[in-house]
Amino acid sequence: MQNRQIVLKAHPQGAPTPDDFGLSTCEVPTPGEGQMLVRNLFFSLEAAIRGWLDGKANYFEPIPLGGAIRGPSVAKVLTSHLPGFEAGDLIFGLHHWEDYSLSDANTILLSKLTPEADIPLSYYAGGLGGSGHTAYVGLHEIGKIQAGDTVLISAAAGATGSMATQIAKLRGCKVVGIVGGDNKCQLVTKTLGADAAINYKTCENLTDAIHEACPEGVDVYFDNVGGKTLDAALNCMNTFGRIIGCGMIGDYNDQDNPTPLFNMWKLVEKELTLRGFLLYTYMDKVPAASTQLHHWVRSGELTVLENITEGLDNAGLAYSEMMRGATVGKNLVAMDLRDDESIS
Ligand SMILES: NC(=O)c1ccc[n+]([C@@H]2O[C@H](COP(=O)([O-])OP(=O)(O)OC[C@H]3O[C@@H](n4cnc5c(N)ncnc54)[C@H](OP(=O)(O)O)[C@@H]3O)[C@@H](O)[C@H]2O)c1
Questions:
Q1: Is residue 285 part of a domain?
Q2: 32 CA to middle of ligand 1, Å?
Q3: Do residue 226 and residue 166 come from a single domain?
Q4: What's the pTM?
Q5: I need a surface site. Which of 30, 111, 229, 254 has the fewest CB within 10 A?
Q6: How far is the C-alpha of 165 from the C-alpha of 65, rounded, in Å?
Q7: Atom 32 in ligand 1: residue holding the nearest Cα
Q8: Which residues share a beta bridge with 274?
Q9: Are residues 195 and 320 in the same domain?
Q10: What is the count of structural domains for the chain?
Q11: pLDDT in tens, 24-53
């Protein structure tokens, strides 16, 4: 059996393009002691992957030219020599963009899934997986949101942002989303229930637009993008406001030239807290987050937005579209299974 892989063909110059990715094939690996062979089912396309494509280390090793792209997936165990896992189990973990992967106790984010029958399996790769958990943990553990807070959220139509927008509303906050398109503004207010939305690409002055949408000031800013948006948000924070440093996607395509910030003095003037976080550090908070998110999804109070691309061959294109802001919700790749393979 052949194993298709998506590999890094060229370091992206700016935003990634489909040409930066190539298709390669190799033999399906044989699991050794302590290893499992898994069939990947859904890949979660993550903004963080962009940081591994430049040939420079960040919090993970860079992906070498010709190397398989790595990303988190929901997968099914085919063969297991790893205690605690058996054939047929569904798992989540950081694998390569390929049909079949080896997984072991050192696989990052490895966990066994017990999907509920009435919940689509794809949700466990995004809305009820890392994206939902990041939004929930960020708002509660870092932002310390309270009912009545005014919460500003950037990339509010994206995977993390769409969940954060809805969770903050469910917690009784006023929510304003910042997004890159009028269609996204509509989605954030009409479908996700935000009180207002700002199109940062067309508004004349972002600070003025935030002041207009939040005349009472911002208590919590959930920052997914950094750069100019963070700078504008700093201008609008209330005293003792909290800034959740979730990500800086606005700078990921040109990491050697981060956007300068001019308004950092506001940290002192307004006695703000700006705190970054990585979900991995808060895994003990995930079970409670997961229980609450399941409850809201079941009750119909929380919508999981997905943009599912079919087929491993299209992963590079799907990733490029996500990183140029062409999509909304959680971007996933659903693997093309052979006739004799099944999810269940
Ligand atoms: N801390 C953690 O543990 C953790 C975990 C997961 C994700 N994250 C971070 O969360 C953020 C969102 O990630 P995600 O996976 O949920 O992706 P996502 O929001 O679904 O990402 C795509 C969106 O990002 C926005 N974007 C892309 N380029 C941009 C730019 N140059 N300037 C401003 N916005 C841009 C676009 O929305 P617009 O059209 O609205 O611009 C795009 O639709 C990222 O910064 C990521 O690194 C952090």
A1: no
A2: 37
A3: yes
A4: 0.96
A5: 30
A6: 37
A7: 250
A8: 243
A9: no
A10: 2
A11: 999 999 999 999 999 999 999 999 999 999
Report mean pLDDT in 10-residue bins for the chain, 344 residues: 95 97 97 98 96 87 96 97 97 97 95 93 96 98 98 98 98 98 98 98 98 98 98 98 97 92 98 96 95 97 98 98 96 89 73
Q: Answer yes or no: do 330 and 215 share one domain.
A: no
Looking at the domain assignment, is residue 258 inside a domain? yes
- Residues within 6 Å of ligand 1 by CB: 46-48, 130-131, 134, 155, 157-161, 179-181, 184, 224-225, 246-250, 277-279, 322-323, 325, 327
Q: What is the rounded CA–CA span in Å between residue 17 and residue 322?
A: 11
Paired strand residues for 100: 39
Same domain, residue pair 193 and 67: no
* Strand (E) or helix (H) holding 319: helix 315-323
Tell me the DSSP string of 231-264.
HHHHTTEEEEEEEEE---GGGGGGTTSPPP-S-T
Q: Cβ distance 145 to 139 under 8 Å?
A: yes
- Check whether residue 39 and residue 147 sit in a common domain: no
- Nearest CA to 161 out of 193, 188, 189, 121 is that of 188
Report how far ligand 1's centroid is from the alpha carbon of 78 (Å).
33
Q: Which domain CATH number covers 117?
A: 3.90.180.10
In the structure encoding, which two tokens stand for residue 192, read together?
Answer: 């996700």
Residue 287, domain member (yes or no): no
pLDDT, tens only, 203-240: 999 999 999 999 999 999 999 999 999 999 999 999 99
How many CA atoms lie less than 13 Å away from 313 in the CB half-sphere?
Answer: 2
Question: Does residue 110 share a domain with residue 161?
Answer: no
CB 332 within 8 A of CB 131: no
Taking residue 44's Cβ as centre, other Cβ atoms within 10 Å add up to: 23
- Domain extent for 137: 130-280
Whole-number Cα distances in Å, 92 to 64, 74, 115, 147: 24, 5, 11, 33
Q: Which helix (H) or strand (E) holds 287?
A: helix 286-298
Which CATH number goes with the domain that contains 268?
3.40.50.720
